[in-house]
Amino acid sequence: MNRNKKQLFQQLTFSQAALETFLTCRRRFRYRYVDALYWPTVWGKNEESLRELERGLTFHRLAQQYYLTGQVPPVGESNLNQWLAALAATWSRQDGYSYYPEQELRWQSPWGSLLVKYDLLVQIPDGRLLIYDWKTQAAPLQEKLLTERWQTRLYLLVAARCGRNYLGLPPDAEVSLVYWNPRYPAQRVVIPGKEKFLAEAEERLSQVLAEIQATIAAADYPPVGVEEVCRSCEYRPLCQGQITEELDPARELGLEDLSWQLVEGESW
Predict the structure, then answer these.
(1) How far apart are CA 260 and CA 46, in angstroms?
(2) Which of 212, 202, 34 is nearest to 109 (CA)?
(3) How large is the C-alpha radius of gyration of the chain?
(4) What is the pLDDT of residues 42-87, one digit of tens each?
């Protein structure tokens, strides 16, 4: 790898969205992260989905206020009021717990730099560390899909490998990730950060980052060539000379991925 390409890889900080973009389409990864051709995340024309997206982002901001102040913020929209009431009833603030909403952690792993942003970290008096991630899509949570996502791997891995030390917890402190959707307050998906899971996540992460490094070295970014992916890609006009079809961003990416694209649009 020549010096410039090696420096490029070393300068990149990888989020879940970056890894998933690379694994979905290397050409799209090149446009977004190597060429830094940033497109706004609200390119879709589906007004209803954009309203849902904005409602979800607003919920995340209001949840942050709740855990910072202990007060449920007043809002004028009935759906948001119901969601916040469900949040406060299901995950109420507890005396003696330490709450860190919208917490960002960076980890310089042996294979590359990683960046995660948690909706909520909670340090429990018994030494456990809980990660909460809010989902607001209309569909119920699916444990199998969530377990296999890069979000789950990175959230647990970064929390275990550097979050414990950052918060002054012992190196063997128990770490778990909780997914929750205010539309379905009785449902939750809890994924423990067991060492076997973390070791497998590290192995897969090292493989993917090695693939990215080799791809950058070879400057070879083939398109995925799958119509269902290409037709709604924001880079379709550059790649195929065709217009991008209407995209439902909340369905295609998920709120957490859209939030990451906002972060990446400013920092890559």
Answers:
(1) 21
(2) 202
(3) 19
(4) 555 567 777 888 899 999 999 999 999 999 988 888 899 999 999 9
Task: Classify strands 113-123 and 13-14 as parallel, antiparallel or unpaired.
Answer: parallel
DSSP conformation class of 231: T
Q: Per the structure, how many domains does the chain have?
A: 1
Q: Could you tell me the two tokens for 230?
A: 């290409």
Give the three-state DSSP class for 234: coil
The three-state secondary structure class of 178 is strand
Alpha helices in the chain (DSSP H): 3-11, 16-24, 26-29, 47-69, 78-90, 143-148, 150-158, 164-166, 195-218, 227-230, 236-239, 249-252, 255-267
CATH of the domain at 70: 3.90.320.10
Residue 249 has pLDDT above 60, yes or no: no
- 188: domain range? 3-267
- Structure token digits, residue 148: 């296999």
Question: Which residues, at least 6 apart from 46, have a Cβ–Cβ distance to it below 8 Å?
Answer: 246, 247, 248
CA-based end-to-end distance of the chain: 21
Please give the model's pTM, rounded to 2 decimal places.
0.88
